[in-house]
Amino acid sequence: MDLFDIFGITEEELKDEKKASAKPKKKEKKEKKEKKQGTNYKLPVSFCAGHLRHVFYDEAAGTWSEDTLKKNIRSTFRELAGIFFKISVMNVEEKEEGIETYIRPEIMYKEFTNEDKLEFPLEVTAGTESLWLDTKMSLDEIRALWVEAHPEYDGCRFQYDEKQKLLIPFMERNAPGGKKYTFPVTVGYLGIQETYGEEDFGVSEVTEAELQQKFASHYPEFSECGFAYIEEQNHLFPVMKSGQEEKDKSIAIPVEVRASGFSLTINPEDIQGKRSATLEEIREVLEGVYPEYTKDRTDMQYDQRHFVVPVLISSRKGLEIRPLNPGWKHEIIEDEYQDKWRVETTPFGVFRCNSSKKDQAAFQLSAHKIPRRILEDVIRIFKKTPALEHALQIFYDNSKDSYILFEPEQCVTRGSVKFKRDLQMEQKYILVMDIHSHGMYSAFFSSVDNEDEKGIRLYMVFGNLDRHTPGYALRVGVAGIFGEVALEDIFEGRSEA
After folding, report:
1. Nearest-CA neighbor of 439 among 483, 381, 488, 370?
2. Is residue 261 located within the same domain as residue 153?
3. Among 1, 3, 21, 2, which Cα is nearest to 487's?
4. Domain containing 227: what range?
5. Per the domain annotation, does 65 fall within a domain?
6. Beta-ladder partners of 158
7. Residue 4: in which H helix or E strand, if any?
8. DSSP states of 71-127
9. Co-location of 101 and 122 in the same domain
């Protein structure tokens, strides 16, 4: 069976598809323009914000605009009346009967410190919990009274609503990334708290990511949360994504720094014996080894699997880093129009993109093409469970000039797949491509894929696996910048096999 027969497409269709993909960005701009006209939310809407939860109905309307929805949220929860927040739609796998849309807020708290402006009497409030204060006192005294009633708020800050004379307590993330927690450990606050023991995980220690996943199974709005950690209580207070910078986030040491073609482990002795450090402190150590990673042109990104990725956002013309592994090379090259191009040379091919404009990602294969039998095996594996999503990976063995199809450890459902990266495989071989399926849905790269796929490699997705001819999409990714890739440029056809 020919490679293209697997997909039920002809050479002519491939050519037509290339022409169609070359049209482009005017259409994208038009779509973005239409999006600005406003988002409508299908009712009923379930608002999920930890201790603030409510289902909004409207018998007279099937949808609400964002302005109408926010207006109703502010009137329902007075503590949000004077706070700026954004709305995000959640993808909830098991919806309650009758609920059409699930949303969570990204709340932009602003700390209040000028206690001279406090007017008494006032009220401290969080959901249904309140503390009335008639007598004038300092913020520290108010905090002490609130923490006495709610110990998980130890170290909290306040936002002040002057109009309503409300103090709203909130927490900021401070849990060190990569730390492992012993049992029993409590996650949550106010009326949404869960205490876990060894029997819940089957291990003696647990990571922040594992606790987050467990807690988010009951409270999905915390699927992208961080935590404030109260060490004396071994208590983690979940803090939802706020859109604010996390450059001061504390990260447990030791930690691995991974860049294209090299890795570096930061140990306590590298940072004056500290057991945790900020991203900026880690970058300073990296700069001591690789002077190119200066503060003004490096973006440090922390991954929940406990490693840091340094991304060069700009650099001098002709910069070249000599990595630890042969066959790898990183370059930032400035063209005649002063655009900076990022070029990543690997043992199996060359990746490039326009870093200045964040587009034009491309890939040129230098090793031989991937055998078509591997592609056939991918489809065969996916078709075994066509209703479920699934993930596979293709590695390159540089010593043998061959490719390996690998199935990572994973958790699959009809609407998602989460797989565990195999560090042993990634250290022994070179990761070429991440592949996942959308089950019986169409093949496309979702917004979740765009957020997840930040590496420098190829990405492929399959869909319509219940049909004789499944669909597919293939692209190159360079640190979050993407470009389309032709199937025949990567995989062997019959004449090449």
Report:
1. 381
2. no
3. 3
4. 180-239
5. yes
6. 169
7. helix 3-7
8. HHHHHH-GGGTTS-EEEEEE--SSPPTT--EEEEEEE-------GGG--SSEEEEET
9. no
How far is 95 from 42, CA to CA, in rounded Å? 14
Using alpha carbons, select from 311, 331, 335 the residue that is nearest to residue 321: 331
pLDDT digits (tens, 9 = 90+) for 172-213: 998 887 889 999 999 999 999 999 999 999 999 999 989 999
Query: How far apart are the two ends of the chain, measured CA to CA in Å?
Result: 12
Residue 492 main-chain phi, psi, to 5 deg = -65, 145
- What pTM does this model have? 0.51
What confidence tens digit (pLDDT) does each residue in 391-405 have? 999 999 999 999 999
**Strands 276-277 vs 329-334: parallel, antiparallel or unpaired:** unpaired
> Would you say 238 and 174 are in contact if contact means Cβ atoms under 8 Å apart?
no
In angstroms, the Cα distances linking 422 to 146, 326, 435, 451 are 45, 22, 15, 20
Residue (of 244, 247, 224, 225) closest to 236 by Cα position? 225
Residues 6+ positions from 10 with CB-CB distance below 8 Å: 4
In a domain, 13, yes or no: no
Which residues on adjacent β-strands are paired with residue 64?
41
Q: Return the H-helix or E-strand segment holding 353.
A: strand 349-354
